[in-house]
Amino acid sequence: QADVFTFDPGFTSTGSCESAITFIDGDKGELLYRGYPIDQLAEKSHYLEVCYLLLYGELPTVAQMEDFEGRVTKHTMLHEQMKNFYSGFRRDAHPMAVVCGVVGAMSAFYHDSTDINDPWQREVATIRLIAKLPTIVAWAFKYANGQPMVYPRNDLSYAENFLHMCFAVPAETYEVSPILSKAMDRIFTLHADHEQNASTSTVRLAGSSGANPFACIAAGVACLWGPAHGGANQACLEMLREIGSVDKVGEAVARAKDKNDPFRLMGFGHRVYKNFDPRAKVMKESCDEVLGLLGIEDNETLKVAKELERIALEDEYFIEKKLYPNVDFYSGIILEAMGFPTSMFTPIFALSRTVGWISQWKEMVEESSRIGRPRQLYTGPTARDYTDVAAR
Ligand code: SDX
């Protein structure tokens, strides 16, 4: 059957490709962004510097970072008319539906950066997406809450700006907590890119047709939403809440192993990692740090998560299937402690991943002009003649 799959330089039929951006060793549990280990970047770098690294391949000098940060800061506002899109949604719409719609609508407002053949327009679109996603996501949160949208501020860092737009209200001053902005920035970094996952492959395939970058990123947002992918962070926290207490964890693990039960441990397992997801390790350490600093060590959800991890990692089913916590297992606990509802977890994942999507899109557009065209293994009926309804 090997001859059924034809190799396509842009895309093989399995949807794989060549890339120099992110490396994963699933057996070792290793993740490198342009060669730098994720745990070092999470500890020593910050999200906008990681954006620069993913986009341009090297860590920036001071001057390069100042220029990049200045360009992003200058593009954080949205066209005022884009506010109208929010009022077209029901207040109880899932924020991912809103973000997907508004990102797609960027094609209609920033058409001066949609020509993918013009390097300058590609660069402007890239900066606009990285700069505006926090505003789009924060405004989706405000819209769901019935609160007025808060404009971005140029005197705040990327993470501080996002938190300020989410939690400030015009009636009073909101001071962004350094603890929360450091935790937020680290969550952005841990989710920035992850090789050819489903949503990144979606962005690449959409981009290979020549579609504009905003439409391609909207396609990535749509794919990420699924509970098997980025939607798992919301599903995981809801699962931990449903388990409710440490004494109920054993029952949940038994259900997860029961083939007749559709219940799965959300935040567990991964197509590539057959060892601990290195992002989950950093996230778990951040949980202890952030909850401790916020004075909520006695967090039942965190206790349930740790007990679930302990039991699962000792269980032969999980050991045999090499199932470990993934990036979504602990992230929701931190986000909830920061004040976000579960519905905001995946939009925050989408915001963080935008730089990975657009970096991969840019790499593909600059290297290949062929449309991706995955093939199939046909299992349907062989050719046959039409029969009139009377003869059926
Ligand atoms: C992300 O690709 C990426 O890089 C994605 C991501 C990124 O950064 O972009 O890392 C982000 O999407 C992380 C994954 C988030 N999803 C979840 O946490 C949902 C729960 N996990 C599972 O649905 C599953 O593990 C997947 C979807 C993550 C992986 O699916 P696979 O590789 O197709 O694994 P599988 O479904 O074939 O499972 C292999 C076996 C199966 O048993 P058998 O059919 O061999 O008997 O392991 C079992 C599964 O039943 N299994 C689980 C399980 N995950 C897999 N059993 C119980 N609980 C689980 N969570």
TrEMBL record:
Instruction: Show the active-site residues.
Output: 270, 328
Give, as in the UniProt entry, the pathway in which the protein acts: Carbohydrate metabolism; tricarboxylic acid cycle; isocitrate from oxaloacetate: step 1/2
Q: Could you tell me which PROSITE patterns the record lists for this protein? A: CITRATE_SYNTHASE
The reply on keyword DNA repair is: no
As its record notes, the protein acts as a catalyst of: oxaloacetate + acetyl-CoA + H2O = citrate + CoA + H(+)
GO terms assigned for molecular function: citrate synthase activity
Q: Where are the transmembrane segments?
A: none
A Pfam short name: Citrate_synt
Highest taxon in the source lineage: Bacteria
What does UniProt give as GO cellular component?
cytoplasm
Q: Name one GO biological process term.
A: tricarboxylic acid cycle
Q: Give the family this protein belongs to, as stated in its UniProt record.
A: Belongs to the citrate synthase family.
Protein name per its UniProtKB record: Citrate synthase
Provide the species name.
Answer: Albimonas donghaensis
